[in-house]
């Protein structure tokens, strides 16, 4: 099981994102920090299908992101470990799995 202790500071989080190749994720600065990324799809159906597949990963990990769909084809994913009060290795792992999913969708042949 992944550690659920929050990273100590923003620099630790930035380094972890860099070392894992998680480009485009930004760190929010609020009461509870989170990492956030926006994904764009060709249409609403593709965006909703992505959310459905993220749901499956989240259920498997028992770690659930905040997800918002906007402008019909944009999805914003926000990750934090609420019970730890910040960003943990758990969030990094889920971000990696979401990135893998997104790459597989964008590189799969279209019918």
Structural overview:
The protein is of the alpha+beta class. The chain has a single domain, classed as Gyrase A, domain 2, CATH 3.30.1360. Helix content is 42%, strand content 17%. It has helices spanning 10-19, 44-61, 89-107, and strands spanning 26-27, 35-40, 66-70, 74-79. A four-stranded antiparallel beta sheet has the order 1-2-4-3, with helices on one face. Strand 1 (26-27) and strand 2 form a beta hairpin. It is globular, with a radius of gyration of 14 Å.
Quick gist of this model?
With 111 residues, the protein is of the alpha+beta class.
Percentage of helical residues? Answer: 40-55%
CATH architecture: 2-Layer Sandwich
**CATH fold descriptor:** Gyrase A, domain 2
Strand content: 15-25%
Total individual domains: 1
H/E topology pattern = HEEHEEH
Oligomer kind: single chain
Question: Descriptors for this entry?
Answer:
111 residues; Gyrase A, domain 2; 17% strand; 4 strands; single chain; four-stranded antiparallel β-sheet; alpha+beta
